[in-house]
Amino acid sequence: MYLLDTNALLYFLYDSGKLSPKASNIIYHNDVKICVSIVSMWEIAIKSSIGKLQIKSSISKIAETCEKEQLDILSIKPLHLDQISQIPAIHGDPFDRLIISQAIAENYIIITKDSTIPKYNVKTLW
To answer: Which of 36, 47, 74, 103 could form a disulfide with 108 if both were Cys (CB 3.0 to 4.6 A apart)?
Structure first.
């Protein structure tokens, strides 16, 4: 099972040519469960509201597109929050730290271009 990092979600939605061949193959040609964290949508909303990111649609529309594409939306569970205290402070981004914690707790592979995430004890793919 896979969890898209925010960068992979944005590439999937708006610029699929930026996905790596491996990531693209998993997302488009596999019958495995792929999730998108609500954390990614929160990150997109925050970054777009402060001008760090330009997006072409609302968060509601992104969620609708994910559901239409059969990407499950992963909510934040107490177990995920407990996991945050168990991981080292390698990554300073709170959104990424929560996505990492979710992946560890759920035993998901993170699809990400972020070169810092593989420094954690979490499976990644790009």
So the answer is: 103
Domain extent for 26: 2-125
Q: Choose among 77, 91, 79: nearest CA to 120.
A: 91
Q: How many domains does the chain have?
A: 1
Count of Cβ atoms closer than 10 Å to residue 90 Cβ: 12
- 75: domain CATH number? 3.40.50.1010
Helix axes 94-106, 6-14, angle to 10 degrees: 100
Would the CA dihedral through 49, 62, 107, 23 be positive or negative?
negative
Phi, psi of 109 (to 5 degrees): -95, 130
Which candidate, 45, 43, 37, places its Cα nearest to that of 105? 37
Q: Look at residue 102 in the predicted model and tell me its pLDDT.
A: 98
Tens digit of pLDDT for each residue in 43-76?
A: 999 999 999 999 889 999 999 999 999 999 999 9
Structure tokens at 1: 């099972």
